[in-house]
Design a protein that fits this description.
By secondary structure, the protein is mostly helical. It has seven helices and no strands. The termini are far apart.
Amino acid sequence: MRGSDREIDALFRRYRAPLFRYATWFTGDSDLAEDVVQETFLRARERTPRRAEAIRGWLFTVATNLARDMLRVARRRRELLAEQGDMLPAPTAAPDPAARLEREELADRLRAALDGLSERERSVLLLRHEGFRHREIAEAVGTTTKSVGTMIARAADKVALALGPEGDR
């Protein structure tokens, strides 16, 4: 089914922010996340599920698959750049504002903890954080509803362990 402009606009207004938040945490890159969201809505314009209640899950599943693909491409580009690293100038990082330092440190630690998870673990944890029910998460990651709770708990335990006692600040 092809989405009309009005339907796509309504979907965009409703789901853009949660999709962007999810894709940002999933990829660790807000620019890449923006690309994921944009491509997700382009695909929604071409083909959306027939059942209206399946739209949310469909959008997040498409975003997850796109994020995986884009991460693979980005990883391969980094590998190619590393092979040619001597030929490229080193990038310089802009200084961080002092007021954001603590928040950025926590975000970095959380990002590292999420990076330590498998893609599937990251997906279930972030989908749960976005308010998906276990049934919806099971459909999105291709598992049974019974295993979702265990997967979420294990992923959350791994993140808590990676954050350590400093995560309680």
